[in-house]
UniProtKB/TrEMBL annotation:
The protein's name: Sialidase family protein
UniProt GO molecular function: hydrolase activity, acting on glycosyl bonds
Entry superkingdom: Bacteria
KW Amino-acid biosynthesis (keyword) present: no
Lineage per the UniProt record: Bacteria, Pseudomonadati, Bdellovibrionota, Bacteriovoracia, Bacteriovoracales
Organism: Peredibacter starrii
Keywords per UniProt: Glycosidase, Hydrolase
EC class (word): hydrolase
EC numbers: 3.2.1.-
Length: 274
């Protein structure tokens, strides 16, 4: 059993975790006391991979999981006690399946979803959808012909939404009608794994070559502020997650250390990147 998604509820002490229990499928647990105890609020044996969980400001819980070739979006109301499947993806004609990449509920009431749609034309495609009616209907706001392995979607205080494509990090100020590229992946063109902003709004990008990029505030150029490439090659350590850690001058990155000795324990090491 392992945790695949974690999110906070509208209450400061409320936490939801979703995970995969092998043949038993997906589970969703809730804590009302900051993790001291947990209750099972929903489970689905058909969901064997890709669960993503998010909670809207009004307390509505959403999770998305892979059910066979398709992905089902489930909604929990009445404090997570009444559940229903409200949407099945892919919704584009001609698609034969999907994988979930991100699911976020924002304070303006919108629900943003990223999926990889399988079998659309000659290649798979990465797609971002937006809903303004609690997931009853979705509007496509971005599509690209890339095999999207990672996705992060964030909404800023001014209403702008940041998301990533294969090589880039981009921003929309009009709910996905148009997008502005903030980070274009040059010169290396490695896939973006995740991005984060520090407390002063500086953008950091983690690529799949174990490097963290930051933007020069004077000329807007990008430089490598932390390079884990050699350590990864020598010791099998991988940078897996980047997040704001409340440090004005940087962000926090989680490094996974996979022990190469059978039976040894893997480690997760937090790093502060300037």
């Amino acid at each position: 059993m392992f945790i695949l998604s974690k999110t906070s509820g509208p209450s400061a002490n409320e936490i939801y975790i979703g995970g995969n229990a092998g043949a038993a499928g997906f589970y969703l647990r809730k804590s009302n006391n900051s993790g001291s105890s947990w209750n099972l609020v929903d489970s689905n044996p058909a969901f064997l991979s890709d669960p993503h969980v998010t909670v809207s400001p009004d307390g509505t819980v959403y999770y998305m999981g892979k059910n066979g070739a398709n992905c089902n979006l489930r909604k929990g109301t009445a404090n997570g006690t009444i559940w229903s499947t409200i949407q099945t993806f892919p919704i584009k004609p001609g698609s034969i399946g999907c994988d979930t990449r991100a699911l976020e509920a924002f304070s303006d009431g919108s629900l943003w979803l990223s999926v990889r749609e399988l079998g659309v034309g000659p290649v798979n495609q990465g797609v971002i959808y937006r809903s303004t009616d609690g997931g009853a209907t979705f509007t496509e706001v971005f599509r690209e012909s890339q095999i999207l392995h990672h996705q992060t979607i964030k909404r800023l205080a001014n209403g702008d939404v940041l998301a990533q494509s294969y090589y880039t990090v981009m921003k929309t100020s009009d709910n996905g009608v148009s997008w502005q590229v903030l980070y274009d992946g040059t010169p290396t063109l490695n896939e973006v794994k995740e991005f984060a902003l520090d407390t002063v709004g500086r953008l950091y990008v983690l690529d799949d070559n174990n490097r963290v990029w930051a933007q020069n505030q004077f000329d807007q150029s990008w430089f490598v502020t932390y390079d884990y490439t050699l350590i990864n090659m020598l010791y099998g350590r991988e940078l897996t997650k980047i997040t704001d850690c409340g440090n004005n001058s940087g962000v926090c990155v989680l490094a996974k250390y996979e022990q190469r000795i059978v039976g040894a324990v893997n480690e997760m090491i937090p790093l502060v990147v300037p």
